[in-house]
Amino acid sequence: MTDPAQDTQAQIDESRIFEVTVDDDGIAVLSFNMLDRPMNVMSPEARIAFAAATDRLIADEGVTGIVITSARGEFIAGADLKALVDYHRADPNAVMGKMALLRNQLRRIEQAGKPLVAAMPGTALGGGLEIALACHRRIAVAGPKTVFGLPEVGLGLLPGAGGTQRLTRLIGVAPALPLLLEGTRLSAQEAHKAGFIDEIVSADALLETAKAWIKANPTATQPWDRKGFAIPGGGPETPENHALFRSLSPKIHAKTLGKYPAPTAILSCVFEGCRLPIDQGLQIEFKNFVSLVTGDVAQNMIATGFFAMNDAAKLRVRPKDVPKAEIGRIGILGAGLMGAGIAEVAIQRGLDVVLVDRDQATADAAKDGIAKQLDRGVARGRLTAEKKDAALGRLTASGDVSTFAGVDAVIEAVFEDPAVKREALARVLAVTGPNILCASNTSKLPITGLAEAWGRPDRFLGLHFFSPVPRMKLIEVIRGDRTSEETVAHGLDLAKALGKTPILVNDARGFYTSRVVSRYVSEGLLALQAGVAPALIESAGKTVGMPLGPLALADSIGLETMRRVRQAEYDETGAAPGPEFPLIVAMVEEHGRTGRKAGAGFYDYPADGEPTLWPGLADRFPVLADQPSLETMERRYLHVQALEAARAHLDGVIEDRGQADVGSQLGFGFPAWTGGALRWITTVGAERFAEECRTFEAELGDRFAVPDGLVDAFR
Ligand code: NAD
After folding, report:
1. Distance of alpha carbon 696 from alpha carbon 636, whole angstroms
2. C-alpha to C-alpha distance for 47 and 40, rounded to whole angstroms
3. Alpha helices (H) in 433-533, listed in sequence order
4. Ligand 1 centroid vs 569 CA: distance in angstroms?
5. Is 306 exposed, middle or buried (0-12, 13-18, 19+ CB in 10 A)?
6. Is 364's C-beta closer than 6 angstroms to any atom of ligand 1?
7. Which letter does DSSP use for residue 602 in this model?
């Protein structure tokens, strides 16, 4: 393991991290400005340089106080997460040795006997806010995008440089806990109200106010270092706070299901650490932090939830050297659920949209529906009335395809019928010509085949949106056999322009996400067929972290749809419709239970209550005396999906592993703690994963067969 934190100070060029000046009054200003980074982040080098510089200033008798500030828009945006990746499964003692520097230094500066002020021109998050909390005063400039918070929990971590201890001691147990447990980001005004920002000033008064405070407080100390200190509102042991911990603990368990250790660790840092002197509290926090940062969950959440998500959002897979697409006006064909959803998103992102359906009335109705959606957004404070009007002003609804003249790109979202799509594309082609980008939103029709209906198949691709479009971040960008690299690049550009996170998938049946999630649904159905208790089938899906149990998901897809799709696939390709097919047919034909829309599927859906499992399941699928454990069912679900994702990856359908993980999380809610459908294999360990699959295969069948090359690829 290499660790830049072990670099000697001499190798670090301090001037590329911050500038230090001392004025005539002896007030030092340490101003962060990380020249080699797009933002100020606490990298290992920054930690070393910061410790050295503050040591120097503390030792310098001519220095009367220190202002820590930033020359950038933000104060410090957080920690450098890249530096944490090497700590995965590392020896905790070694990690402690390496990571103690900032934590120790913050304790040192707050006890130095000289006043320190954090003068924050903008956002302070995570490690940045922890530095500010170790200062004796926090002054901020408010801005529309400026936020303050400790968001570590969102990456499976906790603030490990004093955040849990100082924030709680500063504002009290009850106000601090939600901020720590939810990673809430507050505006400057909110943070001021919460009590961890002392003063809000204008940008040009920032330094001056900080210096004035230093002059007025030459011997500042922290409240917790003063005699008789008590946490505002009392410590964790007061009856009220005790009751709070008692109520939070089961809530956290219900939410994390034992899969996410960070919230429980945060709770115990506050509960145990805040009744002890701060030095012991910091020690407890640090141990908990190291245990999280060396563990799988935080590392999975960082790898996929941060790095792979960012890579996808920033189009890292985009073919290089293709000039960015100039797309200002798009045509959307088909104003149904998907077409209207895409239009709603596009106009809010500043694109001009022509939305066409078979007749004017249908198109107008879709436009009215979009207006209603935007009105709801205004009512909820998500957008202003002016923005809504401007967005609607960009939308033209029409029943005539000739209104597509002059658009830069077309997205087709008509019925899922190849003949209807081909005919519709031919009519668009006659208006626009073949040179513009043309995308189909088909859920499953091969893109390569549809491309034949477009004059230039190289300008054709799939943009597979998810429903509801305004909420779902993912788009699968489908590259057909003849789609050019330029078209791929432009498809990705369009996805980004729509504010979505695209993954690049090569054309294949079920593309990537549908193919993988259908394994989850099938596994639930097969378990039911084999006599596993329905309640166990469903609860294992939920406890492992999928958004719905497999039977509930089948109901929401619709059993009639599932039957039709499988039948059509069989008719077209001769591919066996799967051993669960008879069960689907029986539910539809024998019991007339077609799913959620009909109010009756594997569940009953009463008009005025929670869905409950259909009691008739017990008669139809007798439950075996010998039931698998919850953990076995959980692993079945994760493994069966991971295997399918691995097949898709090994077959070249999805090339980039990070993208496969992102797609699994954003597309169908594969649990974040696993890192995603492929990262789950490396989390378990490829050899062990293969071994467990073989055990399942022996018992359950060849759907658990391990593909050739899996162990080598994921070792
Ligand atoms: P929908 O039935 O709600 O809408 C289809 C619309 O297309 C209708 O308004 C219809 O009048 C219109 N239409 C049909 N033929 C037309 C033609 N020749 N010219 C103009 N308009 C025509 O369907 P949907 O759910 O919006 O699905 C549309 C496409 O998106 C399908 O290919 C579907 O597979 C795909 N898709 C759907 C979902 C989903 O969850 N519903 C998700 C991803 C992709």
Report:
1. 8
2. 12
3. 447-450, 485-497, 513-529
4. 20
5. middle
6. no
7. S
Catalytic, out of 74, 110, 130, 580: 130
358 close to ligand 1 (CB < 6 Angstrom):
yes
462 Cβ closer than 6 Å to some ligand 1 atom: no
- Torsion angle of alpha carbons 428, 430, 431, 432, nearest 10°? 80
The pair of structure tokens assigned to 317 is: 């897979």
Who's near 8: CB < 8 A, 6+ residues apart?
A: none
Ligand 1 centre to CA of 410 (Å) is 14
How far apart CA 442 and CA 462 sit, in angstroms, is 7
Does residue 130 have an active-site annotation? yes
Type of residue at 256? T
Three-class SS state of 434 = coil
**Angstrom distances, CA of residue 17 to CA of 73, 105, 592, 654:** 15, 17, 68, 39
Pick from 110, 118, 169: nearest CA to 148: 118
* Residue 360 Cβ contacting ligand 1 at under 6 Å: no
Distance (Å, whole) CA 479 – CA 93: 48
pLDDT of amino acid 2: 42
Three-state SS string over 340-402 comes to: HHHHHHHHHCCCEEEEECCCHHHHHHHHHHHHHHHHHHHHCCCCCHHHHHHHHHCEEEECCHH
Catalytic-residue membership of 644: no
Q: At 468, which amino acid appears?
A: P
Residue 337 CA to ligand 1 center (angstroms) comes to 7
Quick one: which H or E segment has residue 576? none
pLDDT along the chain (715 residues), means of 10: 51 95 98 96 95 97 98 96 95 93 96 97 98 98 97 98 98 98 98 98 98 97 97 96 96 94 98 97 98 98 98 97 96 98 98 98 98 98 97 98 98 96 97 98 95 97 97 98 98 98 96 97 97 98 98 97 90 88 96 96 96 94 96 98 98 98 98 98 98 98 97 97
Extended strands (E) in 169-208? 185-186, 199-200
CA geometry: angle at 526 spanning 521 and 530, to 5°?
150
Q: Is the CB of 467 under 6 A from ligand 1?
A: yes
**Helix or strand run (H / E) with residue 346:** helix 337-348
Probe target for ligand 1 pocket from 415, 465, 500, 597, with the most ligand atoms within 8 Å of CB: 415
Catalytic member of 110, 152, 285, 644:
152
- The tokens of 525 are what? 């159905």
* Cα separation, 174 vs 232, whole angstroms: 10
Given a contact cutoff of 8 angstroms between Cβ atoms, the answer to whether 170 and 281 are in contact is no
What gap in Å lies between CA 465 and CA 227, rounded to an integer? 61
Closest ligand 1 atom to 336 CA = 4
- For ligand 1, whether the C-beta of 416 sits within 6 Å is yes
475 lines ligand 1 (CB under 6 A): no
Residue among 53, 79, 489, 648 flagged as catalytic = 79
